[in-house]
């Protein structure tokens, strides 16, 4: 029996399986037919034209930007504080703090969403883009904290100690040594947070008001009617997301190699 | 730098309290309230919990959620072991690129993934058309879509990368000399896996399994949109009670029950994990 060869083929198969949905969506987004089925009918870019010229989707895209950008900044900022506290400084209850950071990841998204909904309704806060930003930030915080911590853990502490020994104040050590070294981690976290925020649907459904981001428009279109233009929209979203994630990964990698 | 960490962590803790812990606390409080017509009666009562315990429907929904979690953990573990082995042992300089490649599909978003699977599994979809073309079937297989098969397949697809990450960490901690020793002493492959590889990679399996389990139990979209009649889950029941049925207290009580059971499960798994790390030298000494 040839175990390693078998495992190699299996791995190849699994990777193909992981990318199958992306491939299928791409294929049908270019297919010249109203019906999403085989056999393929020929090439067209009409579905892309339809998506790009749809004012409703354009508005949704604008709202997604207005939500995902602040979420990315806010969750990266909080994630940086958390990662610094965990890896760089003394603090009490460090283990409890680390566990607390994971709580929003472990609670089912819909349960967290209904909890937030009750709080908003009891306090009489109207649902708006602000509530979406705050709600999403907390579920994305575990991801940004981990990404930034993974970069900080590999930064050589002796660099900071040397600066301190040479008489730099705690603030200038942070400002002139730690911050430049963690910068790539911050950028990577921000990209990934943006991607996660723009594709979040469950929590967003509950805490958003009348202004609906693109992810919710896709969700409702999908429930009512499947059209080939949804394929084109999915392709645009997927490749936008993948580009951002790979860009973030490349930036993070660069900082690890140094 | 004494206690600077406390000051850094303070805003994060405040944010977590305001947007996560307070909502969960309020949810817990609501689970003791009741609905009188359209108003909410805040006299504390245990009636909601009594209703859950007494209701065949809710008990079986919770049971089914945990069963789904276990099934998907098992599927992802079986699929994931060879992949994790390959990445850890044969990945070489491509190791981190392979792991990134595995994680990238996670970022395509729930809706897009579910949409794509509908195209693949539908009656006119990729699989049915291919099987018909190849002459394997004459009529399209209807159960591929809107069935438990569809929702479990896609749940396994969704969370497989988490399992592979866990198992990969497990393999990184496994010393191949032990596997070789077992082989040299004449252990057949199944025994090598069961007596050496499995116990040594168990921490990774538990860590990956915990993540997969929690995410399967908490998933809303996948069973809803691909599961057909089986799409009624405990999570969708909570959603209905907060939406159309307007019984927030009962919905809260179900949510709290589910959270308590999940917490218990996580605590047991985390305890097992911590004992394993402590007792690792002991275990390897025995083996």
What does this structure look like?
The complex is a heterodimer of chains A (258) and B (287). Chain A is mainly alpha-helical and 258 residues long. Chain A is built from 11 helices and no strands. In chain A, α6 packs across α8. The longest helix of chain A is centred in the N-terminal third of the chain and has 33 residues, at 55-87. The two termini of chain A are 42 Å apart. Chain B has helices at residues 4-30, 47-54, 56-90, 95-103, 110-121, 126-133, 148-172, 176-184, 189-218, 221-226, 234-242, 248-278, 280-286, and strands at 34-36, 39-41. A two-stranded antiparallel sheet of chain B has the order 1-2. In chain B, a hairpin with a 2-residue loop joins β1 and β2. The longest helix of chain B is centred in the N-terminal third of the chain and has 35 residues, at 56-90. The radius of gyration of chain B is 23 Å and the shape is globular. Classes of the chains: A mainly alpha (258), B mainly alpha (287). Chains A and B meet through α1, α3, α4, α5 and α6 of A and α1, α3, α4, α5 and α6 of B.
Backbone shape of chain B: globular
The largest pleated sheet of chain A is described as: none
Structural class of chain A: mainly alpha
Report the mean per-residue pLDDT of chain B as an integer: 87
Membrane topology (chain B): Multi-pass membrane protein
Transmembrane segments (chain B): 7-33, 65-87, 99-120, 153-171, 196-218, 252-273
Keywords (chain B): Cell membrane, Membrane, Transmembrane, Transmembrane helix, Transport
InterPro entries (chain B): MetI-like, MetI-like_sf
Features:
heterodimer, A: 258 residues, mainly alpha, MetI-like fold, 11 helices, 0% strand, globular, B: 287 residues, two-stranded antiparallel ribbon, 13 helices, MetI-like_sf (chain B), transmembrane helix (chain B)
Summarize the model shown.
Chain A has 258 residues and is mainly alpha-helical. Helix content of chain A is 79%, strand content 0%. Chain A is built from eleven helices and no strands.
